[in-house]
Amino acid sequence: MKVHIRAAEARDERQPDDALTSYTWRRIMDPSVRVHAIVAEKDGGGVIGIANYLLHEHTLGLTPACYLGDLFVDPRERAAGVGQQLIDWLVAEMKAQGWCRLYWHTRNTNYRARGLYDKFTAHSDFVRYTVYPK
Length: 134
Hints:
Blueprint: E1 4-7, H1 19-29, E2 35-42, E3 46-56, E4 65-73, H2 82-97, E5 101-104, H3 111-117
Parallel strand pairs: 4-5
Antiparallel strand pairs: 1-2, 2-3, 3-4
């Protein structure tokens, strides 16, 4: 399925159902914040997918890295290539903008998503540890 991938716009926001969603959307819409989103729009079908990403500085390269924070495709539209088109857009943007890398995480058991992700690159050997405040 071919869809149009574009930067998210204010008109794409759905009714936020919690404070975190509302806060995240405000950051995506704020040009001074390095949190961004792209959407997949189906002709006549509206937005059917979204990917949010964060550009950040780091100590492992000379240019920003891009972290794909979340990728979501409407369950009724999955397995039609929408997720791949969203990642393809980010790969092309990485090359055009000179970002040093694009990376993301997923659960080891997320086999459906890993089937897509494995088309782009082999998974790394890293194990993620996360510390949260108590």
